[in-house]
Amino acid sequence: MAVEDRFRRPAGHEQLLNDLTGKDGPFRAMVDALMFAAALGRRKGKIDSFEKAGEPIRLALMEGRQYGDVLIDMIAAAEVKDDPKILADERQGDRIKIFEGYANGGLNYLQGEINASGGRDLVTIVSNVVMDALTASDEKENDVSEFMQAADIAW
């Protein structure tokens, strides 16, 4: 089986991605927006598959980001806790599919926040989502801790 070297972005969110990475958007590149969306989707428990995809993005672009090279693996390991083989080279396609689903779920959540905001700018909306995550009560386990435990790393 060939190793995947790209991941898909949901065509249904092309405008949102363009807005997020535009002149007044909070992200410099589409890969950054998708990484954020995948982490948000994981945090909110929203994994939404999609059929129609926009232009695929090279995985190498994630490797150039701080922690980008491990984000797909961490999300997959947290999602499929009982299957350590999810991290095997031949399962990269499965990990990418999980990442794509969470990215789409995060974009769906973000679009809902935008729709409910009544016209606030994207930087404010993204900042509020981040602040909500940082100030969340201790009732729900912190996602970073969950990732660290899933990877068996001391925190």
Task: Give the termini distance in whole angstroms.
Answer: 36 Å
Helix content: 55-70%
Q: Report the count of strand segments.
A: 2
Strand ordering within the main sheet = 1-2
Tell me, what's the shape? globular
> What's the gyration radius in Å?
15 Å
Largest sheet geometry: 2 strands, antiparallel
Mean pLDDT: 86
Structural class: mainly alpha
Task: Please count the helical segments.
Answer: 7
- The succession of helices and strands, N to C, reads EHHEHHHHH
Unreliable stretches: none
Percent of residues in β-strands: under 5%
Structural features, described:
The chain has 155 residues and is mainly alpha-helical. The protein has helices at residues 14-20, 30-44, 59-63, 68-79, 92-117, 122-134, 143-150; strands spanning 6-7, 57-58. It has a two-stranded antiparallel sheet. The model has no long low-confidence stretch (mean pLDDT 86).
